Every structure is written in C-alpha cells, then in structure tokens.
C-alpha cells in the first residue's frame, strides 16, 4: 500500500508547487517531489513484498511508513489551508492585511517542517531508485459474457416455472422461487438475466429489484420497493427513513393491487420469519401470477422460506471456467492455441467459480502483454503468498495490481464500508474527495476524476452490480472483492464494534490482538442505550469518524472534546439517514444531537459533514463557517433547524449542500450567492420581489453557474421583480436540468406563465411549479 499512499502525497505536493503563493526556491519542494517519485518507482519495481522485507531489515514496518506519510499529508493540508485563508482575505471575507501577513509567516514555518519530514522519509527509504515497469495498460476493458456458461439450463427452467400454469394458480399463496449457491457461483447474474428476459418483461407490470444484504430489514426493503415502484430519485431513500413502517407497507399495497409484480430479493442472509411473512402478505394483494425471486448463499434460508421451487447452483467444470477465461481474457483470437495449456491451468485454479474466472480474465486482458501476460499470471508469486489465505483473494489481488495507483487507494478505502453496503456513486465520490484522493495535476474536476476512477473499478469487475434509480447510480461491491480489499488493507484502516458500553474509549486497548494506535478511519457502532463517548483517547490521527447508533445521546461536551482531539478529521458522519443504519441494524431512532459546539472551527481539514436526521438540532454555530475546506454539508431532515449561519459565504469550497426537510428554515442567508463551487443545492428559499441585503434572493443565482441536476426553489415576496429574474442568469446554468418552484404568499397570485417568462430559461432547462415544499 506504500506506493498508493505516496501517489496521493505526490498529487498534493504538486498542488503546492502549482500555487504561486508557495513558490520559494528555499524549500525546493519540486526536488523533494522528484525524490518521492523515485521511491515510488523503487517500490513498484521491487513489489510490496520485497519492499516490506527491506524495511523490516531496517527495523521499520510498513505501518510505520504509512504513519509518516499520513503526517506529511497533514502538514500539506495545513499549507493548503493557509492558501485558502489568503484567498478569503483577498475576497474581502476576512481582514486582508493581517491574514496575508500571518499566512506568509505560517507558510514559511510549515513548509520548513514539510521539507524536514520529506528529508527524514528519504533517509528511511534511501536506496538506488529503479525505473518502474508498467503494471497496467492505460486502456480500459470491460467484457460482458456472451452467454450464461453452465447457468443457461437453470435460467430456462426458472422461466418455465414463471410462465407455467402452477405459478398462476390463484388458490395458493404467492409463489417464491429461490436460487441458492455459494459466493461467486453467479446467483445475482442469473437472477438479473431472468428479470431482464423479454418473456418475463412481457408478463409482469412491475419488476422490482432489491439488494437485501445479510440483515433482512423489512423497513429497508420496503423503502427500496417504493423507490422502484414510484420511480423516485435515490435521494428520496433518505427521506423515506422518516416514514413509519406500516405506512410504507400500505403504500406498497396500493401500488401493486390489480397488477402482476415480480419482486427480486438479492443476497438474503439472516432470515426473519415475521418480516418475511409481513412482506409476503403485502404482495398477496397483487394479481394472480405475482411472485418473489430470492437469491441466497444460505441453505437454511432456502429451507425456512418453504418454497416449492429451489434451484441450487454448484461449481462449474474446469472446461466451462476455461471457456469464460478464454472469452474475457483473449484480446487476440490467434493466441488461443498458444495460451491454452496455461489458460486451462488458470481455469483449474478458479475452482469452479465463474466470478473468479471472469475477474481473472479481466485482469489478463487489461495486462495485454500477449503470451507473456498469461504466463505472468500463472507463475506470479502471489499464488503462494501467506498474506492472503483464500485462493479467491489471490485471484482478485492480481486484478488489484493492475489498477492505477490512485485507483487502488480509492478501492482500499471501501474497507471502511460493511460487506453488502450499497452506496450512490455521488456519495462515494464525495468520500473520495474528502480523503484527498481525487486531486490531479491536470486540473481535471474532482467529480470527473471520480467518474474516471469509478469506471475503472467497474471495468475490473469490482462491483457486483450498478443500478440506476431515478437517475442516481448506486453500486454494491462484490462480497469476494470486499474480502480481498480488507485483506490487503492496513490494520488501522477500519475498526468496527458491535457494541460500545463505556463512555470513555481508548483506541489502544480496544483489542488485544491488534494494536490500533494511530487509527485513521473509524466506524463506531454504539449499542442501543449507550452514550456517545465523552473521550476517545488516541483519536488524534482520525480522518474518518462515522457514529452508527440507535437513539444515542450525543452531548455538546462529547463533541467539543472530539473536536479538540481530532484536528485532522476529513469526514464526520453523525447522521441517521446516510445508509449506515440500513446495514447495521433495524430502522429506528437516530442520534439525539441538539447542539454543535463552537469548537468545530478547529476542524480546518473537514471536507464532509453530515448531521442528517438530527430532528432536535435548532441552531448551527457561526464558527461552522470557518471550515474553509468543507465540500459537502448534509442537513437533511433537521426539521427543527431555524436558520443557517449568516457567514455561509465563507464556505468557498462547498460543492454539495443538502437541506431536504428542513421545514423550520424561513430564509436562506445572502452568503450562499458567494458559493460559486456549488454543484448540488437541493433546496433554497429565495426572495423574488427585491434584492435584499441579508436574505438570499432570486438574482443571487447569478454566479452559481456550476449547479447540476435539479434544485427546488421557494419564491417568497409580493411579486416577481423583473431585474431579479434577469440577474438570476439562468442561461449560464449549462448543467442544470430542472428547477421545481413553489410559490409562497402573495407571489402565488402571479400567473405561472408570467413567472416563467420573467425567468426566461433556456429551452433545455425544465421549469416545474409544485404545490408542496420539503
């Protein structure tokens, strides 16, 4: 992992070099960058294993080297923060003279520290650098199989059951078909092929796909069913967490009555009889011929569901694995004869799992070195590596080695998510942004860089599937890939706890088996009834903290202590509706958070903050606006929040701002007009009758030209001011697709045509008028 980490450090150092404010020959940062690049080449040339041995010979562990690199990153962040402060001062948002002077003095001191740290790192890694050999082609391949190898007969049998008379027998209860098999046997792929078959599509009014994961949480399943049935956007999933379960079930029942529906539940693990029967009872109200398709790796689940139609998937023959490997891995058909012996041996090592053959084929195709590439994968020492005990992880790690260094770090970050975690691409990219993984020397937008990395992971078969719900792309990592990522990740990447009873935690004593001092990414799962810890001893290096609780009281004092300790936090998630609760336990009451302490201003590196679902939170401190690096702020469901801080204009890095269901806010501050980096703004209240000095007005959209997707706007006032409508400058909102407008007060008397004419939107910008506001 050292080479990947150095890659991230290099990108951040290049940002300093590119900034004129920090160009100073005294520090020779560019020379230090060249040295780091040489170290990186040395690691790539030697391989992680040989490099680790070299370090150990000097009494240094890879973990210790990682700590040095993290420390360097922290210093780089301090330098870059000084640049932001100077930018704010120049924009008139801070006192310029004093800020510029302090920044120059601090930059000198901080750059000196950075230089010394890099020199110390050089002493650790001193050696003869070598040119690296490319581990991957820059071309990206993603090969879909042309047919269901070994599964076509099963598919035909299941479709015959669905089309048969017995499946439409109204005298019996709703029919259930179960596909059972171990991980990697193609259950999900088979189920998707069935759901998209033209014969199946023809007979069903609704086909609903739900990723269940191990916990059979009826609330989570119901919300995803509604999302599919009503064609809602994925953001609505968070809002539906606030709806009672029975209301959700009634809503589903109304949607499926007198319709034929097929519900596909993928990846059912632990089985809950009551929830299962409740779900079946709802779908009993559909038309005769409706059914439920289930995939599971647990034979006990298949037996408990008492289905008459159970299809067991076994391992494939070595011959079929070779056919998959040949189709996916061969770039040149003329090489088939030359690589057949090698290919058949590789197929044998896939041990009958089609997923293993597919991933290995992707890796070989991406390597693209002809016969030499096939031979490399057969003889590579990783097959015998003691670091990765499972043969499947060995195959996957070969694919991992083919990823660009920057993408490897994005993949390894996934280890903080639990197995079967489903996440939107937008949120995943925001996580990567928060950790600093998406900076690039080519000045490419971070979102575009994230899109590039996401497609690269998809091309390497890292995702079990990607689905699009209402325009939002969501993905789930294959469980076997997740195992591999965790085995390749450093010990300190993630620590999860099923329960935390004590109020004071000490990271160094949580476990006797693994020393976790210097933990950087922490998902803290707190048992119901336990309080948020008043002190987290050893949390000084935390970069990520996610608190997953059920009804946990988070006091202001506890947060104040956390903010004073964890100065390097990049991501802080204290939300109810972020998706973590759906993975770790039944739906229920979220965190009880009523105050954010002023000490939050000390988190100068914070880039992602979610307080979503904090229903009792009434105010936010003005010091929150000192978080100049904040990129994402999620206040979804903070229904008691009365107002936003007046200094919002200082959040110049803010790109994502979510205020769904913040119903107590009556106006938005003027400073939002300064947030020119904003890409997503879910809701905003705008005064339309004049340009107010303190409140956000219609004309304040003028400079928000990076907005994407859609935005909801409540227009308030007596009438539409023509000058404000023109100043809104909708013609320059090239990436904005839709504006939903709610008219409030006297302005509601205006004709919608008059308002639309005043706004004069471009033809490709859809203006909708809605009678509700959330």
Overview of the structural elements:
The chain has 774 residues and is an alpha/beta fold. Among the domains are: 2-125; 152-312, 3-Layer(aba) Sandwich (Rossmann fold); 316-402, Helicase, Ruva Protein, domain 3 (Orthogonal Bundle). The protein has 25 helices and 23 strands. Helix 1 runs parallel beside helix 3, helix 8 (218-229) packs parallel to helix 10 and helix 17 (391-401) packs across helix 21 (479-488). The longest helix is centred in the N-terminal third of the chain and has 30 residues, at 96-125.
Describe the SSE topology:
Blueprint: H1 2-18, H2 29-57, H3 62-90, H4 96-125, H5 152-163, E1 175-180, H6 187-195, H7 198-203, E2 206-211, H8 218-229, H9 236-240, H10 245-256, E3 261-266, H11 273-283, E4 291-296, H12 299-304, E5 309-312, H13 318-329, H14 336-349, H15 354-367, H16 370-379, H17 391-401, H18 405-413, E6 422-424, H19 425-434, H20 446-459, E7 463-469, E8 472-477, H21 479-488, E9 504-506, E10 521-525, E11 535-537, E12 544-548, E13 553-554, H22 556-565, E14 571-573, H23 580-584, E15 592-593, E16 608-610, E17 632-634, E18 656-658, E19 680-681, E20 683-687, E21 709-716, H24 722-727, E22 736-743, H25 752-759, E23 766-769
Parallel strand pairs: 1-4, 1-5, 2-3, 3-4, 9-11, 10-12, 12-14, 13-15, 14-16, 16-17, 17-18, 18-19, 20-21, 21-22, 22-23
Antiparallel strand pairs: 6-8, 7-8
Helix pairs in contact: 1-2, 1-3, 1-18, 2-4, 3-4, 8-10, 13-14, 13-15, 14-16, 15-17, 17-21, 18-20, 19-20
């Amino acid at each position: 992992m050292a080479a990947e980490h150095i890659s991230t450090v290099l990108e951040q150092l290049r940002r300093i070099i590119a900034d004129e404010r920090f160009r100073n020959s005294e520090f020779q940062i560019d020379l230090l960058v060249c040295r780091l690049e040489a170290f990186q080449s040395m690691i790539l040339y030697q391989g992680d294993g040989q490099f680790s041995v070299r370090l150990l010979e000097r009494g240094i562990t890879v973990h210790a080297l990682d700590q040095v690199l993290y420390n360097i990153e922290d210093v780089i962040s301090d330098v870059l923060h000084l640049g932001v402060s100077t930018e704010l001062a120049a924009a008139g948002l801070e006192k310029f003279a004093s800020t510029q002077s302090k920044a120059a003095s601090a930059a000198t001191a901080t750059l000196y520290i950075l230089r010394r740290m890099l020199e110390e790192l050089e002493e650790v890694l001193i050696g003869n650098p070598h040119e690296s050999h490319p581990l991957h082609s820059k071309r990206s391949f993603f090969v879909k199989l042309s047919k269901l190898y070994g599964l076509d007969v099963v598919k035909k049998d299941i479709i015959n059951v669905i089309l048969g008379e017995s499946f439409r027998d109204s005298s019996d209860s709703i029919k259930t078909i179960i596909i059972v098999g171990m991980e990697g046997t193609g259950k999900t792929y088979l189920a998707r092929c069935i759901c998209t078959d033209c014969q199946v599509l023809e007979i069903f009014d609704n086909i609903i796909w739900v990723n269940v994961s191990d916990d059979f949480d009826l609330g989570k399943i119901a919300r995803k069913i509604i999302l599919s049935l009503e064609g809602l956007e994925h953001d609505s999933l968070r809002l539906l967490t606030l709806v009672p379960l029975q209301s959700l079930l009634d809503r589903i029942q109304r949607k499926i009555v007198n319709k034929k529906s097929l519900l596909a539940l993928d990846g059912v693990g632990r089985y809950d009889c009551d929830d299962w029967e409740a779900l079946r009872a709802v779908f009993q109200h559909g038309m005769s011929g409706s059914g439920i398709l289930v995939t599971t790796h647990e034979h006990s689940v298949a037996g408990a569901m008492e289905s008459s139609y159970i299809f067991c998937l076994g391992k494939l023959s070595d011959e079929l694995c070779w056919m998959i490997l040949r189709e996916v891995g061969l770039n040149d058909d003329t090489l088939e004869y030359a690589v057949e012996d090698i290919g058949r041996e590789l197929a044998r090592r896939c041990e009958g799992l089609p997923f293993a053959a597919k991933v290995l084929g992707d890796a070989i195709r991406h390597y693209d070195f002809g016969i030499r590439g096939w031979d490399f994968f057969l003889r590579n020492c990783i097959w015998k590596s003691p670091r990765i005990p499972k043969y499947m992880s060995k195959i996957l790690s070969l694919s991992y080695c083919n990823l660009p260094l920057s993408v490897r770090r994005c993949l390894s970050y996934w280890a903080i998510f639990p197995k079967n975690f489903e996440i939107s691409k937008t949120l995943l990219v925001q996580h990567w942004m928060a950790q600093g993984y998406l900076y690039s020397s080519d000045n490419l937008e971070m979102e575009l860089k994230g899109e590039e990395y996401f497609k690269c992971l998809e091309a390497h078969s890292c995702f079990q599937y990607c689905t699009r719900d209402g325009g939002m792309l969501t993905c789930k990592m294959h469980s076997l890939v997740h195992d591999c990522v965790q085995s390749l990740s450093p010990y300190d990447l993630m620590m999860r706890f099923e329960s935390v009873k004590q109020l004071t935690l000490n990271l160094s004593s949580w476990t006797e088996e693994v020393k976790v001092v210097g933990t950087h990414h922490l998902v803290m799962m707190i048992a119901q009834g336990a309080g948020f810890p008043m002190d987290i001893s050893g949390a000084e290096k935390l970069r990520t903290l996610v608190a997953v609780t059920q009804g946990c009281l988070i006091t202001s004092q506890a947060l104040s202590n956390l903010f004073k300790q964890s100065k390097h936090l990049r991501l802080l998630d204290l939300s109810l509706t972020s998706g973590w609760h759906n993975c770790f336990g039944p739906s229920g009451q979220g965190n009880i958070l009523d105050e954010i302490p002023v000490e939050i201003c000390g988190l100068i590196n914070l880039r992602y903050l979610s307080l979503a679902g904090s229903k009792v939170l009434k105010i936010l401190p003005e010091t929150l606006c000192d978080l100049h690096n904040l990129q994402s702020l999620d206040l979804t469901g903070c229904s008691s929040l009365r107002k936003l801080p007046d200094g919002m204009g200082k959040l110049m890095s803010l790109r994502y701002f979510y205020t769904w269901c913040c119903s107590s806010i009556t106006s938005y501050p003027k400073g939002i007009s300064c947030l020119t980096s904003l890409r997503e703004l879910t809701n905003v209240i705008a005064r339309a009758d004049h340009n107010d000095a303190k409140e956000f007005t219609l004309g304040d959209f003028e400079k928000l030209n990076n907005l994407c997707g859609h935005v909801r706007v409540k227009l308030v006032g007596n009438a539409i001011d023509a000058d404000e409508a023109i100043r809104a400058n909708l013609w320059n909102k090239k990436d904005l697709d839709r504006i939903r407008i709610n008219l409030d007060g006297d302005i509601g008397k205006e004709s919608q045509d008059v308002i639309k004419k005043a706004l004069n939107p471009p033809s490709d910008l859809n203006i909708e008028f809605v009678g509700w506001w959330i």
